[in-house]
Each structure stands twice: as C-alpha cells, then as structure tokens.
Specification:
The chain is an alpha+beta fold. It has helices at about 10-30, 65-75, 75-85, and strands at about 1-10, 40-45, 55-60, 90-100.
Length: about 100
C-alpha cells in the first residue's frame, strides 16, 4: 500500500473557502481518477497561535504504478487548477510513503 501525502499551509483568510473547495471539488476530482482507494484530510493541531493552518491530505493506492499513472496523467491539470485558484496563499510539499503494517 502506498500513501501519497500532501501537506499544505493555507493562509487564514482563504482557509474556510479552500477547505470547502477541497472537500467538495478537488479531493473528489482526485478520487474520480480511479487511481486511489481512499482519501483523508486532517488538520494539524499543534501550531503557534496566529499561524496559518496546516492540513495533510492522504491518498492511498495499491502500487507505485498507480501513483505514477496519477502523477503523469492527472496530477498536472489538477495541481494547476489548485495553484491558480490559491496562488500566493499556500505552501505545499508532497511525500510518498509505503505502508509497512
């Protein structure tokens, strides 16, 4: 099992609208690619007061091949849509993990 993990720090003034868009549009669009088995969105609790909010979105897939297929065929357009919509209001980094147990 592979986890594709995206950590995003979103500006507070965009947070509510961003979270709604992620839950109703972006995450469903990613899941509709058929490359992932499940998704989860979490919010980091231990943050300095007044700091922008940090979220982690995790997508689970069966194999590296499925992840690579997503990254090659679907990710560029979906990422561009997010980047254009929230330009200069977020910072993101991505990691890939393998589930051991």
């Amino acid at each position: 099992m592979i986890i594709y993990n995206i950590t995003i720090k979103i500006h507070r003034e965009a947070e509510a609208e961003w979270l709604n868009w992620m839950k109703t549009k972006h995450i469903p669009d990613v899941m509709n690619t058929g490359q992932f088995l499940s998704s989860q969105i979490s919010r980091l609790l231990d943050q300095p007061e007044g700091d922008d909010s940090t979220y982690v979105i995790q997508y689970r897939c069966e194999s590296h091949e499925m992840l690579n297929n997503y990254l090659e065929k679907y990710s560029p357009a979906l990422r561009d849509e997010h980047n254009e919509r929230y330009k200069n209001r977020f910072v993101a980094f991505r990691t890939v993990m393998e589930v051991i147990e």
